[in-house]
Amino acid sequence: MEGTQPLILTLKLDNNAQMFFNDLRKQYFPPGRNFIDAHLTLFHQLPPGQHEVFELLYEIGKQRQSFTVNVSRIVSIGNGVAFKCESDELQKLHQYLQQQWRQWLIPQDRQKLWPHITIQNKVSADVAQATLNRLLATFTPFSIKVTGFSLWKYLGGPWEFAEEFLFQ
Asked: Whole-model pTM?
């Protein structure tokens, strides 16, 4: 894939999880800022012209099976709310990708992964706290299935779907 837009790599969630988080995002994210569906970002800026990126994602997709990620808690992110996710397998996968792509990573993508799914952002601290309190009142940890990678072109706000790499 050629182009000049940086690429964003996210995990592909199973359909039920995707619908669940999309519904929350539609409910709590400011409509004028909600350009994209709910997502769990792995890398924020990958180079668009590096075929090695695509080849590695394709190879991992062929070799890896879907796996489970635990949604362990709901957290404040200052002016928003996110669901914190935990998985040793996810951390290992992210570290492996970091090692393979080290030369292309921006500082943000070189840090340890803090996996989360944001359902609210860019609101006042009071609104975020009210959302957090409302969601915490009924929250029970649960698990979701990760079924692959999704690659997106960053368009300065909105994202454009580029490619998908499904796990076997």
From this structure: 0.95
